[in-house]
Amino acid sequence: MRSSVSCWLVLALAHWSAALLMFDRVQTESACLMAMCEADSGCVPIGCSIDHFDRIGCGYFRLNIYQFRQCYQPGMKDVDDEESAWIRCAEDYECSSQCIKTLGSRFRVKCYGKNDCETLARIHDGGANGCRDRKTIGYWKRVRDNCGPECNLPIFTRHF
Known about the structure:
- It is a single chain.
- By secondary structure, the chain is mainly alpha-helical.
- It has a single domain, classed as Lysozyme.
- The chain contains seven helices and five strands, in the order H-E-H-E-E-E-H-H-H-H-H-E.
- Strands 2-3-4 form a three-stranded antiparallel β-sheet. A two-stranded antiparallel sheet has the order 1-5.
- Strand 2 and strand 3 form a beta hairpin.
- 36% of the residues are buried.
- Residues 1-19 form the signal peptide.
- It catalyses: Hydrolysis of (1->4)-beta-linkages between N-acetylmuramic acid and N-acetyl-D-glucosamine residues in a peptidoglycan and between N-acetyl-D-glucosamine residues in chitodextrins.
- It is an enzyme of class 3 (hydrolase).
- GO terms for molecular function: lysozyme activity.
């Protein structure tokens, strides 16, 4: 009896804490994310490069250290140093895509009038104000060309 009550309490707290964060969830399977992965790295996890903003990005999405910090350092353990945790996350598709989704959810209010894929892509490329930065338009066009009409499908869904 005690374990079933404990499980129910944990599930209830998880539901309410997620709702309190007020972030929209992003669907796991997304043509947009796959197109971003293709545009960033050819969907190859290893390696780093410098982007047009002079940031070093690594892994599938060329995730940079600033993005890793802003998405709450997923997968980082107490014994990790930040740089090794960042590289490990960047080279793991699930971890890095979750980071991209978190950033999109956090900053999407700054992308009024943009579809979900453009929002996700431009925030990923240009940070919190990516939708306002003209330098992110080229990246968005590469992503859009990769995913075609599926770029118009909704990505963000609200769960209460």
